């Protein structure tokens, strides 16, 4: 047999091995029911050792992200062809029926089965993730149906080949390794349906759930798309997927961990994304009288020299929510530093203390002009 034939056969095998797996069917929106497998939605798919985004699925990020036990997050949104979200100056964008928002929680892989505690630098340029570099934990979907939003938590298997619906939640044991060599054992909590509503029920009166992150002030910054950097709001607008965007300056939060931004703006951005969906004039914690969303500016409402309401053991025997100039005397820092379920704030979504976030809020309170709240 001529020598060139085996070589041609080998080349064909190598090319076949390198060929990219075909893309899945288009994204599928389910107007009812609760599909058991994440793959049934076709928003994300696994191919060639990567988690990939389907056609017309937009990746996005937030200037300041909600803390979830140091997990990294891949966020996407998909809207039906011809449909668009409507701009809102304050709350979440008004997404059309048929919208699917996804948030995949993952950690970079470390040595010896650990996962890394590290800053979230975002997904890869095409919005995907290389699976041998990360440990996928869960993907949460928020689905906009005619009757309102539905939250669905999907948990990834150890092989990272599929994610299945876990309506009752789950605990995923992880070992978190820091750059300093410290290791922490973590039972990562996947929320159940009621816990999803506990955070996403941003209006105490209606009890309906809604998105928390995709608000104009959280999206108004550049994102590194595969085609180049662009402002997210303007990019969505150019694609025809966001309408009614006003001309001129739009609201914008700073990144809480940007050392070049003013301290007050950083602290308020952190409290806005981590606390403001509950602690607002409409949220579940409105009766506390402490409102921490970006639109609250009254010093007393923010907590300065404010007496707590029905905080119980959550006060730590401290008299005031915030004592200006004195973080050690403030209830806010006490609750942020706790992991006691009856004390800690936020009360859902974390099992660990966000050390960098606590340090920021302590610095913010310490920088306030000292005040005797009892005077």
How large is the count of helical segments? 8
Shape: globular
* Order of strands in the sheet with most strands: 3-4-6-9-10-11
Radius of gyration using CA atoms only: 23 Å
Main β sheet profile:
6 strands, antiparallel
Structural class: alpha+beta
**Portion of residues in helices?**
10-25%
Task: Walk me through the topology.
Blueprint: H1 4-18, E1 44-47, E2 50-53, E3 58-60, E4 72-78, E5 85-86, E6 100-108, E7 115-116, E8 129-130, E9 134-145, E10 148-156, E11 163-165, E12 170-177, E13 183-190, H2 193-200, H3 216-219, E14 222-225, E15 228-231, H4 232-238, E16 242-243, H5 263-275, H6 299-302, H7 331-336, H8 355-366
Parallel strand pairs: 5-16, 7-12
Antiparallel strand pairs: 1-2, 2-8, 3-4, 4-6, 6-9, 9-10, 10-11, 12-13, 14-15
Question: What would your notes on this structure say?
Answer:
- This protein is α+β, with helices and mostly antiparallel strands and 375 residues long.
- The protein has two domains: 25-243, no CATH class; 263-366, no CATH class.
- It has eight helices and 16 strands.
- The chain has helices at residues 4-18, 193-200, 216-219, 232-238, 263-275, 299-302, 331-336, 355-366; strands at 44-47, 50-53, 58-60, 72-78, 85-86, 100-108, 115-116, 129-130, 134-145, 148-156, 163-165, 170-177, 183-190, 222-225, 228-231, 242-243.
- The protein has a six-stranded antiparallel β-sheet, covered by helices on one side. A three-stranded antiparallel β-sheet has the order 1-2-8, with no helix packed on it. A three-stranded mixed β-sheet has the order 7-12-13, with no helix packed on it.
């Amino acid at each position: 047999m001529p020598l060139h034939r085996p070589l041609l056969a080998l080349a064909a095998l190598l090319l076949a091995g390198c060929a990219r797996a075909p893309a899945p069917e288009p994204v599928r929106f389910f107007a009812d029911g609760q599909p058991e497998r994440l793959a049934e939605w076709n928003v994300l798919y696994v191919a060639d050792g990567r988690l990939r985004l389907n056609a017309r699925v937009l990746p996005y990020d937030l200037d300041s992200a909600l803390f979830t036990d140091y997990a990294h997050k891949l966020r996407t949104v998909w809207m039906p062809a011809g449909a668009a979200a409507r701009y809102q100056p304050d709350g979440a964008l008004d997404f059309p029926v048929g919208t699917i928002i996804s948030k995949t929680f993952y950690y970079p892989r470390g040595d010896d089965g650990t996962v890394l505690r590290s800053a979230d630098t975002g997904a890869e340029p095409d919005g995907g993730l290389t699976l041998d570099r990360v440990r996928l934990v869960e993907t949460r979907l928020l689905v906009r149906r005619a009757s309102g939003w539905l939250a669905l938590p999907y948990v990834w298997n150890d092989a990272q080949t599929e994610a299945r619906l876990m309506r009752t939640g789950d605990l995923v044991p992880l070992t978190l390794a820091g750059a300093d060599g410290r290791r922490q054992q973590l039972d990562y909590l996947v929320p159940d349906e009621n816990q999803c509503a506990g955070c996403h029920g941003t209006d105490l009166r209606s009890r309906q759930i809604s998105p928390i992150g995709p608000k104009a002030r959280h999206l108004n910054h550049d994102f590194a798309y595969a085609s180049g950097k662009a402002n997210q709001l303007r990019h969505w607008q150019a694609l025809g997927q966001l309408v009614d965007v006003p001309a001129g300056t739009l609201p914008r939060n700073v990144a809480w961990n940007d050392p070049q931004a003013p301290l007050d703006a950083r602290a308020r951005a952190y409290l806005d994304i981590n606390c403001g969906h509950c602690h607002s004039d409409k949220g579940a914690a409105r009766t506390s009288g402490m409102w921490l969303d970006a639109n609250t500016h009254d010093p007393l409402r923010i907590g300065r020299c404010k007496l707590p309401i029905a905080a119980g053991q959550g006060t730590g025997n401290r008299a005031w929510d915030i004592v200006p100039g004195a973080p050690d005397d403030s209830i806010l820092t006490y609750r942020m530093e706790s992991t006691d379920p009856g004390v800690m704030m936020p009360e859902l979504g974390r099992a660990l203390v966000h050390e960098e976030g606590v340090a920021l809020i302590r610095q913010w309170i310490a920088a306030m002009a000292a005040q005797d709240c009892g005077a």
